[in-house]
Design goal:
Elements (H helix, E strand, L loop, with lengths): L7 E3 L8 E3 L3 H6 L16 E5 L5 E4 L5 H7 L18 E5 L2 E2 L7 H6 L2 E2 L5 E2 L5 E3 L2
GO molecular function: 2 iron, 2 sulfur cluster binding
Protein name: 2Fe-2S ferredoxin-type domain-containing protein
Organism: Mycolicibacterium phocaicum
Length: 133
């Protein structure tokens, strides 16, 4: 099976290897972000975020963003747009694979995996992530 022009690499497959998505580009545009209207979001997995400075573990449900979970737990994170556009909520990632859904980081920054936008980005495959919070 060959790859068509709409295929693109996705980081962090089950074994941490790159793989290719065969979904057409418009499918990405339909993928809902936290806060999107019901019916517009793709099924996403819940996961835990470990805060290295306090050792706290915060659960992120399927229907909430990392930022929403952090704020609900009383963790202060500056934010503004809540749509992955402004970079205000940028948070250092200490470990874990991130499904970057923002429009702020460059491709190189996403590949490095050192920062994430918790208002829209999530953990890959429901695995835990550790943040510098
Ligand atoms: S609040 Fe703007 S990128 Fe997260």
């Amino acid at each position: 099976m060959g790859l068509d022009a709409g295929s693109r690499p996705i980081r962090g497959g089950p074994q941490g290897n790159s793989r290719y998505s065969l979904r057409p580009p418009q499918r990405d545009r339909e993928r809902g972000l936290p806060g999107a209207a019901p019916g517009c979001r793709e099924l996403v997995e819940a996961f835990d975020v470990v805060l290295c400075r306090t050792g706290r573990t915060i659960h992120v449900a399927q229907d909430e963003s990392v930022l929403e979970a952090l704020l609900a737990a009383g963790v202060r994170v500056d934010s503004m747009c809540h749509n992955g556009l402004c970079g205000t909520c940028q948070t250092r990632v200490l470990s874990g694979d991130i499904d970057h859904r923002d429009s702020f980081l460059s491709d190189e920054e996403r590949a490095a995996g050192r920062f994430m936008m918790p208002c829209v980005s999530r953990a890959v495959g429901g695995a835990d992530i550790v943040l510098d919070l």
